[in-house]
Amino acid sequence: MRISDQYIIITLLSTLGLLFALNVVLGTLGTFWLQIRKRTEDIGIMRSFGAKRRHLFWMIWGEGALLTLLACIVGQLIWLQFAVNIGLADGSARAVSLRETDWVSTFWLHFLIVCAIQYVLLLIIVTLGMVVPTFRAMYKRPVEALHHE
After folding, report:
1. What sections of the chain are H helices per DSSP?
2. pLDDT at position 99
3. What SS3 class is residue 36?
């Protein structure tokens, strides 16, 4: 039985895509984990002055959401520039012949939907990366949090 070249290429690209996605997820989780760990002292100071845990959580989550939004905007602008340069934005694909029913005919709708999905997925990843260290830092007594650093 001979394995087709197309099957090998699809398997290789799928494996590379999965490894890339795993790298992005672990990198994002690690970055936010480290950020919260370094801010444990700040959280302890705010707690000692009477800050509520929910306010601290929403403050930290808001920062993560804002950073995620900025990263998404930059990434989406790069993707948009790529799409415009290869001629997909106006529906005239030069390299590949596409039918009118393909996603190219509704480029802007497709672009906005993918941007929204990308932002939501990254926000979920950022939330997962910050929930555990944030709660660990918030539930320390202020004295312990100040001693942590």
Report:
1. 5-38, 40-48, 53-85, 107-138, 142-148
2. 52
3. helix
